[in-house]
Amino acid sequence: MGSSSEVVHGYPHLDTVRASITALYRRLSHHTVRTFETSVLPVEVAFSDQEELYAGVQRVAGAMVRQLRLPDARMVVSFREMRHAANVELEAGPEYFIELNARFKNHRRDIGAALAHEVTHVYLHRLDLGFPAVRDNEILTDTATTYLGAGWLLLDAFREDALTSQKLGYLTPEEFGYVLAKRALLFGEDPAIWFTSPQAYTAYTEGMALARRDGRQPPLAAAGWAGRRRYARDRRAALLGGSPAAGAGYAFEQGPDGPGEQLRVIFPCPTCHQRIRLPVRGRLRARCGLCDTLLECDT
Ligand SMILES: [Zn+2]
Ligand SMILES: [Zn+2]
Fold this sequence. Notes:
The strands form four sheets. This protein has a three-stranded antiparallel beta sheet. The chain is elongated, with a radius of gyration of 21 Å. Helix 1 crosses helix 5, helix 4 packs across helix 5 and helix 5 packs across helix 7 (173-187). The chain has helices at 14-33, 42-45, 53-67, 111-127, 134-147, 152-156, 173-187, 198-214, 225-239; strands at residues 3-4, 74-80, 86-88, 95-101, 159-160, 165-168, 251-253, 264-268, 275-279, 283-287, 294-298. The mean pLDDT is 94. The chain has 299 residues and is an alpha+beta fold. Strand 8 and strand 9 (275-279) form a beta hairpin. The chain binds zinc ion (2 copies). Residues 269, 271-272, 274, 288, 290-291, 293 line the site of one zinc ion.
């Protein structure tokens, strides 16, 4: 896992983050995703300077192993001077060797965050779920950690003051906030009460605004007036063979019977971002086949 003091903001990895959520639903099914309704709680990862170091590290690693349902996996954690924040050897198991940067010996509050990311690597490795490019795979790992209830720790590890800044993981703070917000909307959870970092809270608020916007894009019935107007115009143009501007968030497709008939709209599911295809015919209700979300639409 990487750590940095040059903090990038915004949503440079948004496409990969969304693809990660889709991949997670495809591999796990919505039934399994919904069993992750409880997050790791602050009390499980609290780590005081009075606790014996190695016993404490094993205890926190145990909390991550339970969170990710890896009952037979044993995490063997050690410390080493290194450039990265943490690292894990992805072998056959059941023992996995995790190295933490030696600086965590004196910064125990973020050990939970570092272990959350590394144990998620083990979880995804066992599921055989990965993206081919190394960086994309790290984004998948951060996204999975967060969506499955351990990643609020990674966002909370983001701290800035006048002189220093610290961040763990590969997502920007706003991207962590976005995934955390998507989780919060799915489970009706409020992770904001767990933050100790004011910067984490701000990033979460921003991410939540974007997550809510996902649910208000046409042809979803909750779309705002301006979006609906643009959609109606694009739909008229589509009947004449035109296509919406790039970045519209939806596309039209002619049915098999040729122009003018059976026009269909294609758009991403606001929950899992799988592409949904619906006939263009006004108000209708559909259920996403991947994440099971009920979608009120006006196509
Ligand atoms: Zn990693
Ligand atoms: Zn869906």
